[in-house]
Amino acid sequence: MNRKLKNSELDRKTVEEFKEAKKTPIIVVLDNIRSLNNIGSVFRTADAFLVEAVYLCGICAQPPHKDITKTALGATETVAWRYFESTLEAVEDLKQKGFKVAAIEQAEHAIMLNDFEIESDQKIAVIFGNEVKGVKQHVIDVSDCVLEIPQIGSKHSFNIAVSAGIVLWDCYLKIIKNNY
Q1: What does the pLDDT look like over 19-50, one tens digit per residue?
Q2: pTM of the model
Q3: For the tRNA/rRNA methyltransferase SpoU type domain, which residue ranges apply (predicted)?
Q4: For residue 7, with 0-12 CB atoms within 10 Å meaning exposed, 13-18 middle and 19 or more buried, which class applies?
Q5: Domain presence at residue 13
């Protein structure tokens, strides 16, 4: 029989241990996300994969905010974050720091996520767009590539928090495979 583990048995990092730990070389960029619950969920997922940082851009609310905190469950205290008035500023910052910038969107010539390769020691930034309009075209234009999550059902998109979970898990696995 499988016994459900108690939180105390999970051997998770403390806030201090998280801050000192070697991070996964991924930065999440949120391009004008309007739902504070989605922002909080992305922080929580970023914490799970030891993501380097979350960049909040445009209309994204910033911690501390009760609706972000409700879904982040403390991840705003562990995951580093920065705010940029425009996503283009964030992309410029990332490129100066040597990150490969990938917009997560459905676009011509997009690379299917399962076909995307991450080179050894490569730093990656993934941009998730607004819940209704997606990643803005001018942001796609300055991105190094566009990644698309394969879908075979009748709906044309995932919720932003679900997309982040899928993409971060995929990138995390590829980075771990390359570097360990």
Answers
A1: 999 999 999 999 999 999 999 999 999 999 99
A2: 0.96
A3: 26-169
A4: exposed
A5: no
